[in-house]
Each structure stands twice: as C-alpha cells, then as structure tokens.
Amino acid sequence: MLTTIMYVTVYVTDQDRALAFYTGGLGLETRIDVAGPDGRFLTVGVPDSPVQILLWSHAAAAGQPVGVGEQIAPGPVILESDDLRKDFDIMRQRGVTFGQSEPEEYPFGLRVEATDPDGNQISLRERRTP
After folding, report:
1. How crowded is the C-beta side of 102, counted as CA atoms within 13 Å?
2. Most Cβ neighbours (<10 Å): which of 32, 52, 122, 125?
C-alpha cells in the first residue's frame, strides 16, 4: 500500500539558481544536496512537511517558459499558506515574480501563481476557512 508522496520533480536548467529561488525566494529549506551517478540530487521542502521537491537538472521542458497572454493554470507544485497575502508580500520583496498583482479570491480561497527562473509555475493557495 502506498503511504506518502516522497518527491515531486521540477525540471530546472540551473540547480544553483533554482535553489536560490526556492529557498531564498519562497522560503523552503534544502533537504538533500548530494552528487550522484546520474547528477546532483537536490531537494527542497516546506519545513515540517515530508514531501520534497526534486530540482532536477534538465534542458528546458514542456511548459517552460510561461508564454505572455496565456491563461494562468496551476503549476506542477501547489504550496499551501495559512496567510497568503502576507507570504505574497514577503516573497515579492524577495524578488519572486507573480502572474497577478495580488492574490485572487476563488470559491476555495485565495490563489496566486509564482514563476521560477525556468518559467515553471508554482501555485500558492490559502484555503477558505469555514
């Protein structure tokens, strides 16, 4: 029986640049950073969460970069916040680029899309409280 999600892979063209974005911009923590036979194995994660994002070195992939004028869609990673407006302001001050000028209201709560240096969409959400 499956028990959890271990890794979600995000393809990046420069692992050091991606690491700076995910840790310095989004505030995630480095979990694993080791050289392996197939390349550098680099993961980040939300503190106290078992799920890790694998930042895998790869040539530009499908979905990169985000085109101008395209409809905003959820990214390969959706991160949850307990105060999205506050986190949005902090991340914007850190230089994170967003698809909207402010988080938007949806039936489920708040939503905003960030873009990493490779054009990957990172979805940020805050659940509506009942």
Report:
1. 4
2. 122
10 Å Cβ neighbour count for 54?
Answer: 17
pLDDT digits (tens, 9 = 90+) for 51-77: 999 999 988 765 555 454 455 556 788
Three-state DSSP class for residue 97: strand
Instruction: Give the count of beta carbons closer than 10 Å to the beta carbon of residue 57.
Output: 15
Q: Residues 81-111: pLDDT tens digits?
A: 999 999 999 999 999 999 899 999 999 999 9
Separation CA 70–CA 87 (nearest Å): 25
Global pTM?
0.84
- Answer yes or no: are the C-beta atoms of 102 and 84 closer than 8 Å: no
- Amino acid occupying residue 85: R
